[in-house]
Description:
- The protein is of the alpha/beta class and 427 residues long.
- Helix content is 24%, strand content 19%.
- It has helices spanning 30-37, 52-61, 92-98, 162-177, 202-207, 221-245, 279-282, 309-317, 387-403; strands at residues 5-11, 40-46, 102-108, 126-130, 150-151, 154-155, 183-188, 251-257, 286-289, 298-305, 340-345, 350-355, 358-363, 366-371.
- The protein is globular and about 60 Å long.
Amino acid sequence: MTRPNFIxxxxxxxxxxxxxxxxxRTNCSPVLDRMASAGMLFSNGYANSSVCSPSRFAIMTGRYxxxxxxxxxxxxxxxxxxxxxxxxxxTMPSMLRDAGYSTALIGKWHLGSPPWFSPQKSxxxxxxxxxxxxxxxxxxxxxxxxxxxxxxxxxxHVDGYLTDILSDRAADYIRRKAADxxxxxxxxxxAPHWPWETREDRAEAERIKDKGIFHLDGGSLEIYLxxxxxxxxxxxxxxxxxxxxxxADNTLILFTxxxxxxxxxxxxxxxxxxxxxxxxGIRVPYILRWPERIAPGQRSDRLVMGMDWMPTFxxxxxxxxxxxYPPDGVDIFGPDTPRDVFWRMKFRNQKAxxxxxxxxxxxxxxxxxxxxxxxxxxRANMRYREPERFIxxxxxxxxxxxSMPLFPEDSTFTLAYDETxxxxxxx
Length: 427
């Protein structure tokens, strides 16, 4: 079989139920809804973290983010030779590149600052995007106020709305590479991350230009949904470029989010948001389209995580895992063997484990046991009704925890908003 192309599309801070195909209450995602109907939708898909850069470490390496120093910060908020994706570590793009694939990242990096770290040092042959956690959609300025849009190592001064710029760049890349053999393209949007700006909000970008991009006094549900719709329209242009290339049947396209949503997002019926290990902070959409392997209209309740996509892509390309860096993730086209998965965060001393339908959760020293099959909202604490299960899962978590490096003393967490915006489990 001809090796497939790969397109990895990732939204930023998208809520589990924002899309129509995941129960969204507005028609903001017709393209992604059709993509789900044409492929497979996962109902038990998870991010490796409920905040940005740790989740991206896991996606890039196929391993728990704690195996690398930079994966501890929640998220990376500064520079330095320790805070980033180590160039020597194999990544999904580097291993595909070495197997003959063309590779490119268009959009968000947020895995460390030059000169120590960059997309080009970790396997991407082409790069157009921004390096920090977020930029303004029109001025393309980062948290610090500095310009943050790059073509490789050169600043890119391009006028326009960032979501559209990234979508058009991605479509152009597909057209350029259509006849050049297999490619792996990552399209990492900033939408619908703040600042809350649509195509019509250039004036709002000017208003906040000298105040920073945190945008505490802006946004609305209508604006947020419009940002998703504009991303959805751009994904439509990407899919159209794939169709025009003649390779749609053998192009594996994945859509997801890096973590759960923020203040305007919808996670129903889940509770929790970004920065939480409640389901709403870590359960994310996964939509997979690959006509050559996946029949239309498939829904899967298989448990999948961000770290699974590297071994999945490598297996689809016929590339063996690196023997010195065995993945913690699994090939999602392989046997659906029962597995336990784990999370831990410095913020609020959070810990979590999922095993089958059951989830053990610890927040600020308070411990819970939930049956997610019966209680997706994580309201009924079963620890005293199922004491043996509670003890067994708690012990399994700490066995796993001891197998991971300790949190570095200088690791940090960063809150864009005050803690009142964060959901807390009921006791």
